[in-house]
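User: I'm preparing a small set of examples for a lab meeting where we compare how different chains pack in three dimensions. I only have the primary sequence for this one, and I'd like the structure in token form so I can line it up with the others. Please keep the answer compact; I'll paste it straight into my notes.
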Amino acid sequence: MRRVLSILSGTGLLMLLLAAHCFVLPEALAEADGTIVKLDGSKQAGAIRWLNSAKKYEIVKSGATSEILPSDVADVIVPKPLGLDKLAGMVNAGQGTAAIPELEKIVEKYLMLQWDLPATALLLKACKETKSTKGLDWGKKVADNREGTSLGQTPDFMSAYMDALIVAGRGSEVDKVIQAMIQSGKNESVAVAYLKRGDLFVARGNHKDALIDGYLRTVLLYSSVKEIQPEALFKTVKSFEELKQATNAEKWRKKLLAEYPSDPYTAKLRSGI
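Assistant: Understood. Below is the structure token output for the 273-residue chain.
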């Protein structure tokens, strides 16, 4: 023991302390086994890592490592995280606050690995329950990482992200996102953009423009984007009610009830929320 202490004394101890002080942990990696589909149609399978600071993928297979830039990637396919469905059920049941810690772990582990989009959408919805802006940092990181790539963003994620921005009073940022989505020309993106433009008008107390340049545009021109139709119809009804136009409200109420009888927005309509 004395010999060990002697070795660690003086210069030896100083060098050891300096080494410990200078040691830097490597960046946390988002990593999962899966397949990257490139824009040229080729596929690479293995342990996929997303290096966030370097903004690139690494794939490790049989001891060999290759690098791929996100601009060359068409899709990333990895298995669904365990427990994500349960967490989604908690959020949809109004118990999102309890799901937040686990959702944050999934977003971090699966950053740019397919499942960060639905997990972040759930995280943003969960944070909305308590009017928390905690999920916005993750939302921005997920959105920024995909900017300029072919990986895209799902309507559910973009809707949840813009909802969070609106709740946080950051309407000018929402305006910029909406313009970018409309200019993309992608049907799903444009439909979500007009839906959120309606929400932005409502947040500003303008139900008339919310209908004209938001909800009705989404319902009438983008009916093929089924994923957001129940929300657009529900909000159309509510805006007509705010404008005291009962006949128009009833027209769209019947459409929502008839075409989406099992949707959560239909349940909200029935309950009078």
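A couple of notes for your slides: The longest helix spans residues 187-203. Confidence is low (pLDDT under 50) at residues 1-11, 13-27.

User: Perfect, thanks.
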